[in-house]
Amino acid sequence: MDTLFHISLPCADIIETTDFYKNIIETNIGRASENWIDINLFGHQVTFTKAGKFNFNNPNYVFEGKILPSFHFGVIVGMDKWSELYSKLNKLDFEVVTQTTFLNNKKGEHLSFFIKDPNGYMLEFKCFKDKKDIFK
Fold it and tell me: What is the pLDDT of residue 54?
């Protein structure tokens, strides 16, 4: 990939957010202070900034008959990592939302599941059948 993605999001608790991404999702933590952290989400930079209480409205939309969160972010990983994360999160009793195959037997076919992080953000993990179809 020639370019990297960066997003900065508010969080309620830096310690809880750090623990989730470092120990559950197993990402590396980059620069950090008591009020913010950078995480390496599979080669992309996500910054969480302590913002205290915030109101997060999560409207939904329907895609292929599934109700999905309109506001979410995520990462595209290979099948091995996708399966590993899916299995791990289920064993740890996280609520996994909408584990399914989208666009079955069409361009862009991919496995997908969503989980909620400690801040209430919906985090999606995708695994494409054919990487050439990611943007098709």
Answer: 63
